Amino acid sequence: MITMYSTTWCGYCRRLKSQMDREGIEYQVIDIEEDPASAEFVMSVNGGNQTVPTVRFEDGSALTNPTIVQVKQKLAAA
Asked: Which residues form the Glutaredoxin domain (predicted)?
């Protein structure tokens, strides 16, 4: 299962969640404002920035603010 790092106020996060729901893609959401370790991970893959949505895949790779097409392509390649 993939993990989406998010915040409650992020419009891009809400859009991607709704698109993944529509496509039937299973995912777990972690609010980086409530989980400092997750915020550290997000910063580690985004040049020190807390950019969300950041999506981490089962292979450990991550995409920052991906489109649903990018998420589907990454899942298909796995």
From this structure: 2-57
- Going by C-alpha positions, the residue among 24, 64, 34 that lies closest to residue 47 is 64
Q: Which CATH class is domain 2-77?
A: alpha beta
- Domain residue spans in the chain? 2-77
pLDDT digits (tens, 9 = 90+) for 32-72: 999 999 999 999 999 999 999 999 999 999 999 999 999 99
Pull the structure tokens for residue 27.
Answer: 């995912």
Which pair of structure tokens corresponds to residue 42? 């997000």
62: number of Cβ within 10 Å: 19
State if pTM tops 0.85.
yes
CA 49 to chain CA mean position, Å: 14
